Amino acid sequence: MPPTINPTERQLVFTSSQAALYLGVSLATIRRWTDAGHIACYRTPGGQRRFSRPQLDGFITSMTQNGPVTSAESSQAAPARVA
Question: Which of 4, 56, 63, 74 has the smallest set of CB atoms within 10 Å of its CB?
Answer without folding.
Answer: 4
